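Review box. Two proteins, two foldings.
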Amino acid sequence: MGFAWRTALKDFHRHRRTPVEFAVWLGVPLLVGTLVIAVSGGRSGPRPQAHVLVVDQDDSSLSRLLVGGLSQDAAGSFVQAERVTLESGRARVAKGEATALLVIPKGFSDAVLLEEPCTLQLVTNPAERILPGMVEEALSIVVDADFYVHRLVGEDLRSFAGGPGPGRATFPDQQIANFSVRVNQLVGSLQTYLDPLVLQIDAQSEEAEKKEQPNIAVLLVPGILFMSLLFMAQGLSADLWTERDQKTLRRIVVSPQTVTSFLAGKTIYSVLLMAAVAAVALGVGFVYFDLPFTRLPVAVIWAAFSGSVFFLGMMALQVHCASQRAASIIGMILIFPLMMIGGSFFPFEAMPAWMVTVGTHTPNGWALLQLKAILSATAQPQALAIAFGALTSAAVLFFLAGAQRLRRGFAQG
């Protein structure tokens, strides 16, 4: 083991003289993670919001109620309504400064109360696709609500059409009392359906819903980290060609030291280097997303162990190729599909079902799932122990395949 540690120290000093390569390996997860998080809207993800310009030509209580219903607070931050003039609204929508322009015509209030035809004009921004459709759907819900309200208290609503009457600022007390009695009778007639409830609703608090939603860190950080580990595995394994060109491998084969000790040293160095990168990348993610640091040690160990298996697999591929160029091309052909389908470019939660099925059975996809389980505190100790055992078996097979090839011709070139 002394020779193995000296080999690992030798590789450390060699890479210390070329810090750019290490900076790139460390910078990949940090840079990609920063860009992805910025695009996705930060910790809580993107919050789509439709900017609707409203031209209220009716200027009645009901039209103001509609505008208020489309306001930012009432619509749960989905819609931001802004009152404008017709000319200004059309000009701004034409410039793409808003999602839609809603025109409430004069007579809207009486038409709603009398259940008469009334046309709400909605001019949408052709540059947007999703938000205008959501605004249309919201307005269709308002139309449906008006229909069903009239089925229940339509007669009373018609009595309010036209306002309180000439010379009055409010409706007569008797009219208000009659409407209140009507609503009370309506509630009584619905009591059969309300007590007990025909429909059982399982209500959850906003805090409970947030807890059930997957943390964005669990979705993004593992894939980005494994992308970096795959690149590191290829770069570190390609170092064998440098060792061969410098005749280091030939001297190892004919020296009293064994090839297995030499490869063990390179594996030790790769594990330590990947652990350092994983610790920095995951540490930044834990701080930014406020994850419990009790999960960090196991997550770093798993990432470093998985990365070392990737290194050994790439090393076995390198030594079985005819040239360094061929090894580099084959490695890239292998790595990019693995990253794409294995959850590094897109999280499994955003992939089609068939792609998830394939991706979770790739080496990096399977390892990524285990890391997600660790980060979300859903990993079972027994299952994690079996996973470590599977990684160990794969590492041993790759290690023996690489050592055998080194003894049988790769070192001589």
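Next protein.
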Amino acid sequence: MSSKIKVDNIADQGNNNMLVKCGTTLTIGACGNTVALAAGASQSGFGRSGSVDWQTTPKTTTFTAASGEGYFINQGSAITANLPAGTAGAIVAFSDYARNFATYNLTISPNGSEKIGGFAADVKLAVNGQAATFIYVDSTKGWVNVQNAEDTETGNPFIQASGGTETECGDFKIHTFTGPGTFCVSNAGQPGGSTTVEYLVVAGGGSGSAKGPGDGGGGGGAGGFRFASPTLAPLTFPAKPLNGPAALPVSVQGYPITVGGGGSGASSPGGPCAPAGNGANGADSIFSTITSTGGGKGGYNPSRASGTGSPGGSGGGGNAGSPNPVAGGSGNTPPVSPSQGNNGGASIFPSNPNSQGGAGGGATAVGANGSPGVAAGGAGAGLPTGFGANGESCGSFRHYAGGGAGGRKEPANGAGGVGGGGDTNSNATANTGGGGGAGGSNGSSSAGNNGGSGIVVIRYKFQ
């Protein structure tokens, strides 16, 4: 037979009783005594004191944490701790049991779209011996780190982004765009991680001119070449003198990417006075505030009339159709610092009628003059493969923005500049910004050649 005790009121009986009502406060237990819950009983409404109950069996694989618990981590590979759904006052903690977080990072991942330190992004603990305690405060900041053996964690301090072809090189992530796209920044980073991106922006190269029945036309100028990379090693490489003054800051948004196409070469004129035989300039490439200008087309030879090369990122070569020197187009047009390109080469009419056209300028050198030999395109700029291998072997350089070779009447062809510039009678290489080679055929007309399309590469520290 069971019994029940019912009371309408708990009266003040002194400080020696187990249950005492003092004014509006109900005290359980006398001073110095212990209050224990029976086995299987639970408590509610008392809140937490800001501490956690440490689980003494270390975690070795990915797991979901529970509020009020602390975890020792003893992984042999990188693992993830998934946070519980956040409620005000929830608390979790983590500690590096094996002292190897630098080798095997612990990733702490918020629940759904919740935040850690104000960012809806993962946190990595990556310092040996590191420990951190997180309390969920509100939806604005989410889980806030209140204690850390090292630096305070406030969300992922590194830039996070997507777009283009994504690769990694050490602690750097690389986005390569060979056509139009969008560079989408989802986390702008923190000063302790990364807040800026390095860039390579190469415009499309100009076309090499067609060749009439007379002497040779000019090679296409390379597309403008602009880059900035404060961290890139080694300290010296072919493009180093063109390194921009600073990387670009980014914010959470989408950045449209424009990759300029190469200029199209004109068809074979077939006669001594055909118009428009010099084809077209290359198109601009654009990322954020950086615009690289398309390369200038090579000068055309309409029955030995004068036709200078066109200006651009690098200038096109001058044609060889005049008894007077014909200038190449000016490079670095419009001007930027460091320079985005060089002038095209001039033709110099010799005593014999077999004059050669000037070559297109390249990122690091002017185009060669056209006489007495066939003009070689100006050299492009080389970057270490750490900026994006693009098919080159590790430890080598990837070159961009070489000028196109000049046209000729003699049998020999000229060479395009290193960095995708087209040889005489050859198109430039795609996605290098190289200038197209001028047409060349001994005693007859021939078509001009296409410039190479450009490229945009974005690089930043992501861990």
